Task: inverse folding
């Protein structure tokens, strides 16, 4: 198991956002985290990435606990994420956005950058080539010098994924990657994730509302409702599960 | 691609050569008054580009310059004054023996001025950068006051409110202009490296930067300490230019002036900081008439202290923030102007 | 130190702490709704003190009327700065807002400096205010007794507004989540304006009290007092009104007591608040009663 969430509970003040939830994700699996709004999915992401500390329970990545690690340290261990609402670096070019992902992989010092020593040029050249490779892989290399926020919504999503891939992750967390996309874009994204899993040896954990997307892509899903897991298994079985249906129906009624 | 880089390098070399020529020309051919203004401008360029690194590039609102300039000025002055000169002018308390023993040449004095400032900045980084929020601004604002309180209350070291006088006048345009040139090159090199990218990423979206594995505490601390180092060096140059310093020289007005400079030039742009310096320093000279004891308001008490000028400055600052937030350069640099690409808005 | 001197210092500390508390409330409330360190807040207090001065010295008003003028004038000024300078920047980067706040602060200080001069002016304290009371050896002026009493009454009022009225609930809700407030059908901008008005009114009370006890007013008086009051707000827990009052008392007492016990530290009096600020940021950034705002980011 590459990721193991062990009896995690998260309280905010008096409110329990997640209650004793456990699940494990196998290497190269595409695992979906689904459930109605407010079920605690994004909270779960934030616990895995270290932005929140679990009130109880622990998260293990490659059998090592992530407890006590800072978010940036968890990224450096191989856990990358994207955000629900795209959060690109607004003032920077697409290429620079991706280069941020190489920040901790470029091996030159502060002094070397000020004095422009050979290692600076060598490392910059190396990470730039790698960043361009990723952009090419996603088919957005022609926008490398564009300002990231000048791109279309779908392309911005790709930049976000490119940026996450740049951190060289083993586990990629995607928070509603298909949100706001049209069916054609969604299809393209699903294909991309599927392919990237093979090409980058990725394990994917994703949050998504689009059940068609989940069905098509995920090997297994975990359904959360009010912070509790109510189903784990194949996505095709999830939609037949009475408890899951009830949870979603409740969601519709509340909406 | 390779061709463009080469062309860039030629332009850079030409700019450096032209600057060096101008420094030599100004020092040898221009009159004393002009050289004095140019010296001021050079020192303010050092301060502005380094202030811009933390405020504009990293996006961390800080009000530190007057504190670190004061530190740098005092450290340099104590190292440059010889024991006799100190013994002679310490009127409030006699100096500690170690104060008398402090002695270094100009290069080392500037280096220690910068290093001491940077170390203090490092110490301040722990309370302010480990937590979120804008505590940097308030802590640095308070720091400026504390430095003044310390300077006044430790006359055995600083000669208290009398300040230090007869500091050897080492600064000339070769020094101020030379250090300014080096500072600008160093800052530009930092900004155009993984460190600068990480700083900009923190400015644009700190959470996203963390999600890319950026150690934001480390990067912010680096930016802050680099700023402090150069501000300390600038303070040292200033002490050796003015030849006398006192606690009241480094008021918040210094920081405020620099804030206007970088806001006017475009927060985040080093080129803008340089343009802003020239504009504000030039404009400041020109606006001196505002501070003359003209009494159109019918009030007698407008002595020869900067008053109206500061009101105008603050109105300019508010105006730029409300209506022209990008300043002159936005976040662009000189090299971006050569590229035929849509600029940043 | 004998018991009487000790009690005397307690009274002084209570009085000084009350003034910091009154000013700190404005910082903490504005920070709560806007995440803005309102650098101009200390200067609004200065304007309040000046208005009180003008009310008595120029307009010949009785003290109470002059104080009312200060409160109304400062509240208006506070709301005006929000409307003119801060509101247009609601969606701008945070740093723009902070820079504008510094600009307003510097503008107020220097405009007052230019128009009214930098020389401290003696505040015309009414005789009954400076009347010295002697309670079993404890000696204090009426004004230094009045300050903590009024502070506590005002604090009670503020807490009642915050916890018992619709607007108060909206203010508290806004501190956590703008959307909730919009859901309540209340205009967030209106709430923010009210917060500026309330904070500035309290600052004016603090300013007038300050002028009563240290009977001078001058354009730069808001800088250091403001800085200390902000430190008080952080010590108490930024965002919490009760915390701001607590922080104000802690800083006020420290200044009075440390100097009473260790007079040799007198020169460093103005540095205590700063030391507190640093210590709190190092060891308990949320302050004594504070809520960790930053956790509500995601």
Result:
């Amino acid at each position: 198991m590459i990721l193991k969430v062990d009896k995690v509970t998260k309280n905010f003040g008096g409110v329990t956002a997640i209650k004793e939830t456990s699940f494990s994700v196998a290497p190269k699996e595409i695992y979906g985290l689904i459930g109605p709004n407010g079920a605690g999915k994004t909270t779960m992401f934030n616990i895995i990435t270290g932005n929140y500390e679990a009130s109880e329970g622990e998260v293990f990545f490659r059998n090592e606990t992530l407890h006590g690690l800072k978010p940036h340290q968890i990224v450096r261990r191989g856990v990358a994420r994207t955000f629900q609402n795209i959060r690109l670096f607004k003032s920077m070019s697409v290429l620079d956005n991706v280069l941020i992902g190489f920040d901790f992989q470029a091996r030159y010092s502060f002094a070397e950058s000020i004095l422009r020593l050979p290692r600076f040029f060598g490392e910059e050249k190396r990470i730039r080539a790698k960043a361009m490779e990723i952009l090419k892989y996603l088919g957005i290399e022609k926008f490398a010098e564009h300002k990231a926020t000048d791109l279309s919504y779908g392309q911005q999503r790709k930049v976000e994924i490119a940026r996450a891939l740049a951190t060289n992750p083993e586990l990629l967390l995607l928070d509603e990657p298909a949100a706001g996309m049209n069916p054609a874009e969604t299809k393209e994204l699903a294909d991309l994730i599927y392919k990237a899993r093979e090409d980058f040896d990725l394990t994917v954990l994703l949050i998504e509302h689009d059940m068609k997307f989940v069905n098509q892509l995920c090997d297994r899903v975990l359904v959360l409702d009010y912070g509790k897991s109510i189903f784990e298994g194949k996505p095709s079985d999830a939609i037949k599960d009475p408890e899951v249906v009830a949870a979603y129906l409740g969601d519709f009624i509340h909406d | 691609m390779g061709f463009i880089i080469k062309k860039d390098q030629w332009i850079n070399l030409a700019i450096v050569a032209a600057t060096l020529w101008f420094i030599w020309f100004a020092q040898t051919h221009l009159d004393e008054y002009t050289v004095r203004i140019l010296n001021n401008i050079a020192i303010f360029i050092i301060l502005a580009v380094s202030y811009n690194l933390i405020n504009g590039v990293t996006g961390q609102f800080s009000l530190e310059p007057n504190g670190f300039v004061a530190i740098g000025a005092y450290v340099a002055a104590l190292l440059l004054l010889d024991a006799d000169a100190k013994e002679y002018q310490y009127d409030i308390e006699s100096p500690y023996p170690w104060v008398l023993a402090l002695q270094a040449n100009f290069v080392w004095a500037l280096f220690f001025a910068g290093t001491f400032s940077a170390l203090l900045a490092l110490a301040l980084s722990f309370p302010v950068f480990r937590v979120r929020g804008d505590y940097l601004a308030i802590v640095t604002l308070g720091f400026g006051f504390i430095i003044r309180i310390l300077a006044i209350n430790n006359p055995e070291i600083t000669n208290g409110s009398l300040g230090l006088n007869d500091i050897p006048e080492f600064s000339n345009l070769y020094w101020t202009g030379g250090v300014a040139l080096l500072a600008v090159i160093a800052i530009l090199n930092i900004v155009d490296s993984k460190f600068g990218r990480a700083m900009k990423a923190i400015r644009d979206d700190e959470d996203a930067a963390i999600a890319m594995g950026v150690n934001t505490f480390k990067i912010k601390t680096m930016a802050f300490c680099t700023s402090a180092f150069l501000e300390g060096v600038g303070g040292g140059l200033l002490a050796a230019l003015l030849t006398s310093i006192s606690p009241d020289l480094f008021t918040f007005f210094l920081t405020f002036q620099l804030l206007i400079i970088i806001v006017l030039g475009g927060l985040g742009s080093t080129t803008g900081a340089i343009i802003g310096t020239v504009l504000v320093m030039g404009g400041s000279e020109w606006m001196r008439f505002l501070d003359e004891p003209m009494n159109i308001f019918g009030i007698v008490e407008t002595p020869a202290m900067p008053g109206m000028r500061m009101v105008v400055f603050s109105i300019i600052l508010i105006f730029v923030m409300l209506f022209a937030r990008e300043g002159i350069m936005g976040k662009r640099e000189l090299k971006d102007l050569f590229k035929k690409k849509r600029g940043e808005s | 130190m004998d018991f009487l001197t000790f009690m005397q210092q307690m009274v002084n500390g209570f009085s000084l702490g009350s003034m910091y508390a009154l000013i700190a409330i404005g910082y903490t409330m504005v920070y709560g709704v806007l995440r803005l360190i309102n650098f101009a807040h200390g200067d609004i207090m200065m304007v309040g003190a000046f208005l009180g001065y003008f009310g008595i010295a120029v307009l010949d008003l009785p003290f109470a009327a002059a104080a009312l003028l200060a409160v109304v004038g400062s509240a208006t000024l506070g709301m005006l700065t929000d409307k003119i300078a801060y509101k247009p920047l609601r969606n701008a980067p945070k740093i723009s807002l902070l820079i504008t706040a510094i600009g307003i602060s510097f503008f107020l200080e220097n405009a007052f400096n230019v128009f009214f001069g930098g020389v401290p002016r003696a505040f015309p304290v009414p005789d009954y205010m400076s009347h010295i009371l002697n309670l079993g050896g404890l000696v204090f002026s009426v004004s230094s007794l009045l300050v903590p009493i009024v502070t506590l009454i005002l604090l009670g009022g503020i807490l009642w507004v915050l916890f018992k009225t619709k607007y108060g609930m909206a203010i508290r809700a806004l501190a956590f989540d703008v959307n909730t407030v919009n859901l309540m059908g209340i205009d967030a901008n209106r709430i923010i304006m009210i917060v500026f008005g309330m904070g500035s009114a309290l600052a004016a009370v603090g300013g007038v009290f300050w002028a009563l006890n240290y009977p001078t007013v001058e354009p730069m008086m808001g800088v250091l007092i403001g800085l200390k009051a902000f430190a008080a707000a952080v010590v108490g827990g930024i965002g919490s009104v009760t915390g701001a009052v607590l922080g104000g008392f802690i800083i006020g007492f420290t200044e009075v007591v440390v100097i009473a016990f260790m007079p040799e530290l007198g020169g460093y009096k103005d540095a205590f608040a700063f030391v507190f600020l640093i210590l709190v940021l190092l060891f308990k950034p949320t302050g004594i009663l504070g809520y960790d705002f930053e956790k509500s980011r995601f």
Q: What stands out?
A: The mean pLDDT of chain C is 88. Strands of chain C lie at 121-122, 132-135, 138-141, 216-217.
